[in-house]
């Protein structure tokens, strides 16, 4: 395990901003809005990497340089030391971004979060405005 720690520095860096549909290209998004997903987290990206059987390391304490409030990044290894790919369908950073952005909206944690939000919005259709005016 100690031999792997220096190698992590050579792994590719994947910030959640790269696939965030809420960000502009100037703010750091690297794929088109149509393929991007809304507010991905490091944990979701890590789960996607494990689904693709890619070695990854989550670095929670690191911040995105353009927006230091955006915390966390994921380091991913695409190739073995002999140059062969861990997953033949993912050969570049861009392909990794597209595959992860496609998988994040179907993440189990994300599906559980969205169900209560949609039911609570349906129940509160009244805006709260109206009533007696105070003079």
Question: How would you describe this structure to a colleague?
Answer:
The structure is a single chain. With 135 residues, this protein is an alpha+beta fold. 30% of the residues lie in helices and 16% in strands. It is built from four helices and three strands, in the order αβαββαα. The protein has helices at 4-7, 42-51, 93-103, 108-123, and strands spanning 12-14, 56-64, 67-76. A hairpin with a 2-residue loop joins strand 2 (56-64) and strand 3 (67-76). The chain is elongated and about 80 Å long. It starts with a helix and ends in a 12-residue tail after the last helix.
Offer a few descriptive terms.
single chain; 135 residues; alpha+beta; 3-stranded antiparallel β-sheet; 4 helices; 30% helix
Topology record:
Elements: H1 4-7, E1 12-14, H2 42-51, E2 56-64, E3 67-76, H3 93-103, H4 108-123
Radius of gyration: 19 Å
Largest sheet: 3 strands, antiparallel
Helix-and-strand structural type: alpha+beta
Low-confidence stretches: none
Q: What spatial form do the alpha-carbon principal axes imply?
A: elongated
* Mean pLDDT over the full residue set: 84
Order of helices and strands: HEHEEHH
Task: Give the termini separation.
Answer: 72 Å
Number-wise, the strands total 3
Helix content: 25-40%
- Roughly what fraction of the amino acids lie in strands? 15-25%
**Main sheet: strand order:** 1-3-2
Report the total helices. 4
